[in-house]
Amino acid sequence: MFWRFGFSPASNVDALLEKEGVTLEELFEEEELLQECKSHNSKLIEFLCRPEILQQLLNTIITENPDETKKFKYPYLAAEIFGCEIYAVSDAVITQPNLLESFWTLLDRPVPIHPLQASYFSKVNGILMQKKAGDMVEFVKSQTKSISNILLHVGNSSIAELLLKIISLEEIPEGQGIVPWLSQQGLIPSLVERLDPNLDIETHNTAAQTLLDIIAVSYQNVGPVEQEDGSPANAGGGNSLVDELKSEAMMRKIFGYMLDKTAPNASSALSSGVIIMIELIRRYCSEIEQAEFQQHQFQTQMMQSTRVNEFGIMPTTEKMKSLSTDLNELLKVIGEKVEDFSYLLEHPRNMQATDTTLGRVIPLGSERLRTCELFAEILHLQYLYFSSPLFERLVFGDPPEEEEVGPDGKVGGEAESVSAAAGTDAPSAEPVVDGLSNAVAEMSLKRLSGRNVADELSSISELLVNSKVLPMCLILFFQFPWNNFLHSVVYDMIAKVFNTYSFTSQSSNFAPVGPDGNEIVPAPGEEGILSPLEVKMKEVSVVFKKLVVSILVEGKLTLRITEAQRRNDFTVEQPKGVRLGYMGHLTYISDEVTKLVDKCLEDFGPEVPELIHSDEWQEYLTGVLKETKDRDRQALGGVRPTHTGQTANFGKVDETDMPPLGAAPPPKKELGGGLHHSAPATGNESDEEEDEVGKGSDSLTADGGDVASDQMARFICQSIVNDFPDRGILGDESDDDEDEGLGEAIQDELLFDETGFDVDNPFPDKVSSISFDEESRADSIDQSDSDSYISKDVKPPAVATSVQESGSPLHKAVLTAEDDAVSDDGPAVDSGTAGVSTPSG
Q1: Fewest CB within a 10 Å sphere: which of 63, 557, 809, 814?
Q2: Where exactly are the structural domains of the chain?
Q3: Residues 10-63: pLDDT tens digits?
Q4: Is 32 exposed, middle or buried (0-12, 13-18, 19+ CB in 10 A)?
Q5: What spans are recorded as compositionally biased (Low complexity) (predicted)?
Q6: Torsion angle of alpha carbons 17, 22, 27, 33, nearest 10°?
């Protein structure tokens, strides 16, 4: 931190700037240039703000230097100088429009422009938009060919990113108005025209990706549902660019490109167009889910709060109106083209046989896969829309505000709606319930003019049934057993159809509810009268019933599943045979069929029960399907090990049968012949001893479990110390000294025993189980091994004498036990007699 006190040495940049006639190239050669820019060197900033220097900086970025050593270095440094976000430099560029105009001449060049120059160009403009957003918006609007030039080079990722940055300026106050201006400049029509099937595939991909980015940015920039003053900020999702894209004119143009029968790249146009449609539908679904969450929060707070002004905000009426008709034009055009898509599923364009590992086959192709994906997304929208808790508001709208007629005959005293009630304390619960009565709902239905999303979805479902789209998708499912992309799409289609019908066929799912989430009780005398909501759900249920029948009867789903199972069994039995690729999805589809049958079998005519009750299907359910589901329910790796029975004691040692290490065995009775035996013990005695030991351990645990555990831990620790491998002849004097100190410390801690726990012989009543043969075999142990039985607690003279009298290690152990009372301070055993040094604990 010497520079704080003026002790820092002068930089080379300062020394260079003091020279007369310094050039920008000389600065570029200084290694400290960028560091000085980041530290906001005043002399350097003053130099960079000169108009001629700024012109050189911008020209360095857009001009290719013929010198290879400067070709990459100088443009990089020029862009990084702007990247230091020096406000004076950005302000100097903005205040001189001629500098920006010359800088934007890069877009006047023919395609393609250098990617490095395009990236630096986009970076500098992005920084200027952050610092001077309002001025940059005005500059872009002042350029007559700015948007057309950007679209000319939109295939360059950096230029496409610049376009998204311009659209994103709409979310800040200084940039408001840029999106309507872009719409007036024909941005969306220009991008849609690039989906022309006569153009190359790269142009299609670029246009589709740009439109997808515009959709994403437009929905991300949507502000709050309501502003602080309570007025709606943006009723629908997206902006004017997205609204223009969803218009009927644009949709017809895109679908015309997608279904062109003669153009060379119609398949690419269809794939790009379907991606755009799917993105628009998914964004609409997310808007519905967001509104559902908002209403759920309102209802939760309404039940938990006591004051009305704490209820939060429900989705506004304007939002509901926008959602009810937002995709009308898109769905209308799709409905008109269902038959054309159905024809493509049977007769794909430009499909030729291809050599594969399975032989020469005709592939599925992107056309048919994208078509199935489009229909699957529409069926997903149907499920989300018809099962939404906002369905009543989406279809019938919010009830009109009640009006009162005053004494003067004028209308007044309007009751506030539920959404307005969220911010005031005026309304009561009773007018809200009356406002959602059947009569008001019918008035709301009459008030709505034209068709809504629900009507368009129902029409598309009817067309799917008439065109037999779902049976065709099933045929493709079984025709291409190794295309899992197709299998996932078809499974999703079947699941959504079955689930939608299961929901709409249950009358309890769409009983009218109030804003608090509670079911509205019908007025007296209206119990048997169906509400408009129930009537609408009945109509939807009838349509989806046709779709279910189309899948089960016309598509012969159950028969195809059983045939596929037999085909799979035959394939597996062949040499090197493997399961077919769709068997996993068939299990899922079978589950969906089973759930539908359990709920709604009685709703169908005789054709469906006949298929369900067939012998083949029942055999499949009770046989293969049940075995598969049972196997899938099993845990990976087998049954989880339990801690009961013998498994609980696996790896453990029975401490009652283990003599303590370092302690002498119990004394042996001398029999005839001079041999030593253990006294024979009867079974009753051993059982009684084990019972006593068990009772003793239980009492220790019950009365003082911590004490018993601590004593056992100390005993094991002493045993480990006594059993170190470096004992005896392998240990040197230094090790013996250290071990002796450690053993004495442990012995001192064990002397505190308050419960009569004998650390040297914790089980005094346990009779040795060493047999006659074992003792005889033990006599053959050599002298070095037998010496390891000698404990430091044995009195050395007695041990030496015993060793001379008998070479048996058991004999020595007995003598050791007889001398347990000897003090630990005795002299060490004579190494010449015993052959070892005295172990130290």
Answers
A1: 63
A2: 9-185, 187-222+237-293
A3: 678 888 888 888 889 989 988 888 998 998 888 899 999 999 999 999 999 998
A4: middle
A5: 414-423
A6: 10
The one-letter code for the residue type at 342 is S
Reported pTM: 0.68
| 688-732 confidence digits (pLDDT tens) | 444 444 444 444 444 445 556 677 777 787 777 676 555 444 444
**Residue indicated by tokens 């220009």:** 190
Which is nearest to 790 in space by CA: 841, 734, 738?
A: 841
Q: What is the DSSP string of 717-751?
A: HHHHHHT-TT-GGG--HHHHHHHHHHHHHHHHHHT
Residues 6+ apart with CB under 8 A from 289: 384
Mean pLDDT by 10 residues, the chain (841 residues): 52 84 88 89 90 93 85 92 91 91 93 92 94 92 91 91 92 89 93 94 93 90 45 58 93 95 92 96 92 86 66 79 89 94 90 78 90 96 92 79 43 39 38 36 46 91 94 95 94 96 76 52 57 84 93 94 94 90 94 93 87 92 91 79 55 53 52 42 46 44 54 77 54 48 50 50 52 45 43 42 43 47 42 39 33
CA distance 301 to 310: 7
CA distance 730 to 836: 9
User: Omega into 112 within 30° of 0, i.e. cis?
Assistant: yes
Beta bridge partners of 404: 412
List C-alpha distances in Å: 823 to 132, 792, 796: 95, 9, 11
**In Å, how far are 655, 698, 713, 720 from 650, measured between CA atoms?**
14, 21, 20, 22
Type and span of the H or E element at 694? helix 683-722
Sequential DSSP letters for 376-410: HHHHHHHHHHHT-TTHHHHHH-PPPPP-EE-TTS-
Rounded distance, CA 123 to CA 125, Å? 6
Q: What tokens were used for 291?
A: 């509104």
Task: Round to whole Å and give the CA distance between 431 and 21.
Answer: 84
Residue 171 and residue 248: Cα distance in Å, rounded?
A: 27
Rounded-to-integer distance, Cα 27 and Cα 44, Å: 10
Number of C-beta neighbours around residue 127 at 10 A? 19
Any bridge partners for residue 676, and if so which? 670
Contacts of 279 (CB under 8 A, 6+ apart): 212, 215, 216
SS3 state at 676: strand
User: In angstroms, rounded to a whole number, what is the distance separating the alpha carbons of residues 750 and 757?
Assistant: 9
